[in-house]
Amino acid sequence: MSRVLVAMSGGVDSSVAAALLDEAGHDVTGVTLKLWGGESDSGCCSVADVEDARRVAAQLGIPHYVFNFADEFEHRVVTPYVDEYVAGRTPNPCVECNRSMKFGRLLERADAMGFDAVATGHHARVRAAGAGRYLLRRGADGAKDQSYVLYMLGQAELARVLLPVGELTKAEVRAHAARLGLRTATKPESMDVCFISRAEGRQRFLAGRTAAVPGAVVDRAGREVGRHDGVVGFTVGQRRGLGVAAGERRYVLDVDAGTATGSARARPGPRPRRARRRPPRERARLLRPPAAAGGSRAGGRALRRRHPARRWHRRLTAQAARLTRIRRSAAASRSRRLRVAAKRNSVAWAGTAPRTPRRV
User: Fold this and answer.
1) 259 falls in which pLDDT band (50, 70, 90)?
2) Are 251 and 271 in contact (CB under 8 A)?
3) Is the dihedral of CA 15, 21, 25, 29 positive or negative?
4) What distance in Å separates the CA atoms of residue 14 and residue 7, rounded to the nearest whole number?
5) Which of 76, 148, 296, 300 is spaced 20 to 30 Å from 96 by Cα?
6) Among 44, 45, 94, 194, which one carries the catalytic annotation?
7) Residue 102: helix, strand or coil by DSSP?
8) Number of neighbouring beta carbons within 10 Å of residue 298
């Protein structure tokens, strides 16, 4: 039995993670991170989510605490989020939150309190690969896999992380919560940014923290085709809301934040055949230790460079192709049924003898 600190966000996944570890005989303590000090009606930072986590912990009979990391969250997650948009890039705040808060500050607090491991409700798996190495694997439910937001974890973090629900599908997680009578069993999922309320929206949130720098919208040849109020409203691959009427679909190919003088540009154009994005080199993480000097280097280079957006792009493309095949098959089947019905009606009409009029 080990002492485990479970990050409970108030959702069904973290609730079941705590329940599974408690059933396995671990000494479980739940903790909810208060990360955002402003208004929140989504994600894992609202007052309702904290209350749900507290009541689930009470149902399971485990201690529950709230750690206030709001100041660090503002500095490490919110400010970089805004800075990335100003620089013309589209950030993923959940990745940085996992890096610096859940597997950064929370692990440090767990060490100080004498816990052996930290657990979360992420749909991912950790596997021991021998020789003191650990591998991050996708969750059992491919549709809910969250391993891409944990790609930055190194060996030190993976060795102390438990992901109980990674072995279950989402349906199995909800079924387990229902059997235990947990109040979060039917709670809907939230995929919104936790520090941006639904009423406010991303554009208004960024507008309140940045100065709008108007600029030009240019085509691939560099010709100006429109104007914009700031590059924070654009992301590569975006199609809607460009403010450009070209008579055909246009996508954002590039965002040039320019300089402080305001030379900001958004470049729309036809959709590229294949988007190739890679994470910055400085953010790549070596998950496998390098080979010893003079030894074999086979398998020593396991640099995780695959960007999660590429995997999701392939998955969405495959789903779209599958739906297209289904629609075509349904249309072909319907067409065959209509042809067969028409042929039968034609045969029946041709085989009917004309009636001889009766003479009066």
Assistant:
1) very low
2) yes
3) negative
4) 7
5) 300
6) 194
7) helix
8) 7
Of the listed ranges 221-225, 274-278, 301-305, the least confidently predicted one is 301-305
| Nearest by Cα to 163 from 187, 130, 137 | 137
Check residues 224 and 19 and name the one with the higher pLDDT. 19
Helices (H), the chain: 12-23, 47-60, 70-73, 79-86, 93-97, 106-113, 155-158, 170-180, 201-207, 308-350
Rounded Cα gap, residues 4 and 7, in angstroms: 10
> What does DSSP assign to residue 131?
T
- Could you tell me if 35 and 1 are in contact, meaning their C-beta atoms sit under 8 angstroms apart? no
Question: Are residues 97 and 35 in contact, defined by beta-carbon separation less than 8 angstroms?
Answer: yes
* Amino acid letter, 304: R
Catalytic (active site) residue 45: no
Both tokens of 183, joined, read 């109040």
Nearest to 213 by CA among 90, 88, 92: 88
Query: Is 194 one of the catalytic residues?
Result: yes
Lowest mean pLDDT among 58-62, 119-123, 211-215: 211-215
And the tokens for 94? 């959940």
Among 44, 45, 94, 97, the active-site one is: 97
Identity of residue 61: G
Contact 12, 182 (CB under 8 A): yes
